[in-house]
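Troubleshooting log. The previous run stalled partway through. Resubmitting the same two chains, unchanged.
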Amino acid sequence: MGWLCHYTPVEIFTALGYTPYRLLGREGNNPRAATYLVGNLCPYVQSCLEAAIKQELPLLAGVVIARSCNAMIHLANVWPHYGAGGKTVVLDVPRRFDEDAVFYFSQNLRRLAAELAPPGERQLNEERLWAAITWWEEQRAAWRELLACRAAWEDPPGGKEIMDGLARWQTPLNPQEADKWETVITRLTRQPRVKTARRPRLLLAGSILPRELITMVEECGGLSVFEDSCNGMRLLLAPAARAEGDPYLYLARLYLGGPPCPRMVGDREKRRQYWAAAVDRFRIQGIIYHAMKFCDAAMYDYIALKVFSEKKGLPLLRLDGDFSGGNRGQWQTRLEAFLEMLGVE
Amino acid sequence: MDIYQLLRSHLGNALRQRAFKSPWTYRLLRQAVAAQKKHYTWQAAHRLLLNTIDQAAAAFLQKGPVVWHNVFFPTEILYGLGVIPFAPEAAAVVATGLGIARGALRRAEGDWVSGEACSFHRLAHGCDREGYFPPPGAVVCSSHLCDTAPQSLETTAAYHGVPFYLLDVPHRQDAEALNYVARQLKGITFSLVESLRLVWDEDRFQEAIVNSNAARERLLAVNRLRQQRPACIRGEEAHGFIYPMLAGFGAATSVEVYGQLADELDRRNREQRRAVPEEKARLLWLHLRPYYPNAIFQLLEREAGAVVVFEEMSHVYWEPLDPEKPFYSLARKVLSHHGLAPMARRVEAILAMVDAYQADGIIHFAHWGCRQSTAGLRLLQDALRERGIPFLNLEGDCVDQSKYAPGATRTRLEGFLEMLL
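Second attempt completed without errors. Output:
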């Protein structure tokens, strides 16, 4: 079952017997998607549509599209017509985190479970859902532990390794592959580190971070130790107490209460606190913001981050990207200058 | 007469920001506009302008708490609370007319507001930071239809250090969504009462709901009159009456304006006075129009006789409000917007408008940065093609004149008209 936005509770898929598969886009331009969506719309969304049109996705039973931003709303409109086959289910995700929003989201999740249930199985068994919640939470906890190592270690696993691992973790092709992940994460944690020259510790932020950006940052001599993105730390949510007996309420609170995406506009203070905690804990020396073209939330998120970094006295570099794998020349020049300023020779 | 020319004459370069805060500006302006009543083709437009001047005076002179809102937030709440509503997106249109847009856009760019963002919000940002807008006491914003508005208005609230209240609007229209929105509306209302130290007045709140219903009835009457053939008001003139739709529901003045417009249209219809000498085609206009001087309507309506008989923004999409259940009915109104939810709903509404107004073709003005309106056009185009309705997607910018290409615009319009006439 395909999914895109990190506010999509994959636990429901697992409990229903689907293997969750995240659509992470593709490299290259998206000429066919651009004929169905306008050019000045989120390139990640365009890229996912292009992958579907070009039949580059594995066979999916369907796709759940969270209406989390304008681009996703439009993707949900065109996907049933031009996207991959299978069912298209849309999910409304609140932009607030309060009791009303949690309750409303929990109702949507219950409906989502009913819509995804195979014919004949009207209601998802709550025990199965709790089991799936536990399974996912164990996986996320292992990832969080691995990522937290980077706070203390001088030579932690690089951002590229972590992001590659996370990408594979989000795109298993069958349940057996998904089950193996705990060992993979543990292996990554135990992997012997090669002592390298001291590199500036960086926070990379943005809506969704392209793989090639992290690769380039590390090739140029930087060290990504915190990825504030929906394919990075935000994806791993945050530990939550199981205060509720209702799994849907629990999931609603878990997802809405996680590290906030820039779309959670009423929660900007929480986002500032999130950055502040990351900067202190991970001993951040510089910030790189990947501004996804045409992402309205990222445009204003960058302004908030700029104010934050100025207050903290942290150097900040903004790199604009269209998720196509392009811009390499411009990125490299600006990255080299930025890292030189941070002491990379 | 050109009201902007008059305004510009009162707001000389060096004194601009100060002039906005001087009671003399509004007194002089009001007197000048009031004295020229006969020069207005539509008395309803004259009334609307006087009301707008009064509202601007109240906001700029801080005669009460000023609450900024986006144009999709239900303003009945603000009028019901007795605060002064201020819509920065609408004020950006005025800034364009006053010729301060270029400097304000430059300021926004200097503050890192991306050029990819909607220029209404970029311009509003620049105007605010340059001191052209009245500072808010609080900011409210709904999340539906536009992703930029909540981001931009939250940034403004943080800049001014005032509370920001987000109305989160889902896309479903079921009972759960209705409850969710209604509870938020109630919460926002009483949070405003508390944070702005207002006195809750049930009668005033009820009056705003009653006014909203009355304005709706009169706007429906206006729209019914505009369905008649031949048209008796040009689209360019009718576009001037969108403001109450975006920022005036709940105010008594909107009832007056729409009432007066309905009377004038009715009279013109009876007198068989036409919008243009020969109506050769009828057009439906989607989204907004450019607000700087341009030749689009001149070419369409006066030169080619293709009258814009209706604009999407004037579509009445909601049912009357229930004064007994104000928050529920306002929630229903918000959730009823035809631009919300699947694109099929907007397509259906547009096709219904085509039928009701007997439109021969459609022009969509694709405002740069408005992803809400433009991103789903392919589905609309497919539906129109099936019905054989000619469609033109005219790209441009509503407030940034530097994006206007007169030659290219004329070529595209002429091509479309050739196909249509």
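Takeaways: The first helix of chain A runs from residue 10 to 15. The longest strand of chain A covers residues 286-292.
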